[in-house]
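hiii, so i know i said id send this last week but things got crazy w the move. better late than never?? heres the sequnce for the chain we talked about at the cafe, plus the structure i predicted for it. fair warning i was half asleep when i ran it
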Amino acid sequence: IVADQPIRVEGSTIPQALVTVNGVSVPVDNEGNFSTMVNLQEGVNPIEVQALSPDSRTLQDSRSVTYSPP
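okay and structure toks below
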């Protein structure tokens, strides 16, 4: 449960991967790191991260974040 927003979603993958967070493209640096800010709605918010490698392999991770404003 978080009381502040937006939240930072970050991670690492291979440098050539195409990454999306909730369907929005996110830049990946030369070391494979990515970071973006996600706005939340009050209540439960799904966060879906997907990485597509140059050889078409897909990795996905899903989390839920509950936003409860102060």
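btw The beta strands are 7-12, 18-21, 24-26, 33-38, 43-52, 58-67. thought thatd interest u
miss u guys!!
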